[in-house]
Write a structure and sequence with these properties.
Number of strands: 0
CATH topology of the largest domain: Arc Repressor Mutant, subunit A
Number of helices: 9
Distance between the termini: 52 Å
Largest sheet: none
Strand content: under 5%
Length: 181
């Protein structure tokens, strides 16, 4: 097994063994990113494949500043954002009239769910909601950065996040009620 420096140097030289080592070592850490941004496993696989193609293509851009894993994560997140932009025509928004207050009982449902169940519910969000939810809640980007990255206004980012949260709460509540009937 190669160390990170050997993997990096091998990938820069186009060595297939080093590329396989990089994939084997980091794909388990990058896969959850793909799943969070994707609507389903097939889309996540597309993001993962495109992400690794970009990693291998732009490996020389990594200058050793900051962690290598952090650089890989940024490439994968950017790949997911680009995937979202390409598939923007499938964008779906909910009317503001569909926003309701959520009770404490419903919020408690989340604490009873596994990570896989929560991820499954996040994947059912419309593309725009899911992308903004991930960028803001998971990646910690500001609405300003999200707006600039996606070519939308900050207010659109904020409203999409608000709607994503409400929709998630409704979906989780529905699962919770169905599971306890």
């Amino acid at each position: 097994m190669l160390n990170d420096e050997d993997i990096l140097n091998g990938c820069r030289a186009g060595d297939a063994l080093a590329q396989k080592e990089l994939y084997d070592k980091y794909s388990p850490k990058l896969w959850p990113i793909c799943l969070r941004y994707a609507k389903n496993v097939m889309s996540a696989e597309d993001i993962m494949q495109e992400g690794f193609i970009r990693i291998f293509r732009y490996i020389n851009d990594y200058k050793g500043e900051g962690s290598f894993e952090g650089w890989l994560r940024r490439v994968m997140v950017n790949t997911a954002i680009n995937y979202y932009k390409k598939n923007l025509q499938q964008k779906m928004e909910k009317d503001i009239d569909e926003v309701y207050d959520i009770s404490i009982r419903e919020a408690d449902a989340i604490s009873q769910m596994t990570t896989e169940e929560i991820l499954s519910v996040v994947q059912t969000l419309p593309d725009g909601y899911r992308t903004i939810f991930n960028l803001f809640v998971i990646e910690g980007f500001s609405h300003k950065v999200i707006a600039e990255t996606l070519g939308i206004t900050e207010n659109t980012s904020k409203s999409q996040l608000s709607r994503a949260r409400v929709l998630l709460q409704h979906k989780i509540n529905k699962i919770y009620r169905t599971g306890n009937d």
